[in-house]
Amino acid sequence: MKPLASKIDEPVRSPLTRHEGIDFDLIELIYFAYRDFTSDPDVILTDYEFGRAHHRVLHFVNRKPGLTVAELLDVLRITKQSLSRVLKQLIDSGHILQIQGTTDRRQRELYPTQKGRNLALELARPQSRRIRTALTGMTTEERAAIERFLGAMVTDGQQQAPKAVPQMHED
Amino acid sequence: MKPLASKIDEPVRSPLTRHEGIDFDLIELIYFAYRDFTSDPDVILTDYEFGRAHHRVLHFVNRKPGLTVAELLDVLRITKQSLSRVLKQLIDSGHILQIQGTTDRRQRELYPTQKGRNLALELARPQSRRIRTALTGMTTEERAAIERFLGAMVTDGQQQAPKAVPQMHED
DNA sequence: GAAATTATGTCAGCGATATTGACATAGTTT
DNA sequence: AAACTATGTCAATATCGCTGACATAATTTC
């Protein structure tokens, strides 16, 4: 007694829980966890009239000072046009400095100023606090499992060392 | 011999690793994990000319068929104006149905069609696969720890049962 | 039953962040 | 000298969020 194929445009009334072994609870949990994880810095950013894009740029420039523009584009996986406005604002506000590359003078190495370093720390503090709270009571093994899980969720091994994949030339 | 306060606008050259006990590696890992987690459905969505917003609506309507518009707004934490365009497209494309509420006829209960249910499953499949792969080799305890961690990253207990906090009236 | 409130929808405009395409300039490599 | 590379910029467009204002129908309150 399967439902007939004619039942098109009938409302489906069964809640989606488990189907084909798909864990919807976990999928949803990841969504909520990330939403709240990013909400902390978002509040601070509005005071500076910055958005999430500024946060990402600031984070990576602080993580690896001297990063070139091409490397940054590669980590963020956005276009140079998208980066330009955000980067310009961070430079104008004195959070990031551009210094001409020494070996290749076409390159612009990006460095945080002390102001930029301070803001990066200010943004990371509530996120770190949230993580620390979430990890309370966990054993070393459990913490290691969480890190392994997160690492395995990432597609490739590009995280740490951007490989300077060249930007396409527009001709 | 601390650096002098006069060193304003000097580039900060030290990479940001650990500072005040802030785990930047973990913060970054969460960013990459989520970015790649959402990239799977994003690829599928472009085929339907839908975006991430459609995905979220489709997900929650499938999770809890019969959800009212106000409940959906509460879960998503967006305004009705933001929802309207996306919801209209999902209705026009035959993925979601609106049915007048039985007790309160002002309410519109949202249900997926079979087509909408299928798309929700199609979008969840690669995400579930990624999670399953990332969990391979984990013990039951380790998996439980990961779930506890993610749950603890969420701010309140609003996840499952939306509390129908009323939308502000615009007068 | 009239008045207030609620649930939803809609129009108009705006802002942030992303995109593609095209072109310019300076510096490096061949 | 020619080709290529790193970066910057102008212009147009798309998505997804926002605020404000108003409309309609249904429900609740007085």
UniProtKB/TrEMBL annotation, chains A, B:
<dbReference type="InterPro" id="IPR000835">
    <property type="entry name" value="HTH_MarR-typ"/>
</dbReference>
<dbReference type="InterPro" id="IPR039422">
    <property type="entry name" value="MarR/SlyA-like"/>
</dbReference>
<dbReference type="InterPro" id="IPR023187">
    <property type="entry name" value="Tscrpt_reg_MarR-type_CS"/>
</dbReference>
<dbReference type="Pfam" id="PF12802">
    <property type="entry name" value="MarR_2"/>
</dbReference>
<keyword id="KW-0805">Transcription regulation</keyword>
<dbReference type="GO" id="GO:0003700">
    <property type="term" value="F:DNA-binding transcription factor activity"/>
</dbReference>
<dbReference type="InterPro" id="IPR036390">
    <property type="entry name" value="WH_DNA-bd_sf"/>
</dbReference>
<dbReference type="InterPro" id="IPR036388">
    <property type="entry name" value="WH-like_DNA-bd_sf"/>
</dbReference>
<feature type="domain" description="HTH marR-type">
    <location>
        <begin position="23"/>
        <end position="155"/>
    </location>
</feature>
<protein>
    <recommendedName>
        <fullName>HTH marR-type domain-containing protein</fullName>
    </recommendedName>
</protein>
<keyword id="KW-0804">Transcription</keyword>
<dbReference type="GO" id="GO:0006950">
    <property type="term" value="P:response to stress"/>
</dbReference>
<keyword id="KW-0238">DNA-binding</keyword>
<dbReference type="GO" id="GO:0003677">
    <property type="term" value="F:DNA binding"/>
</dbReference>
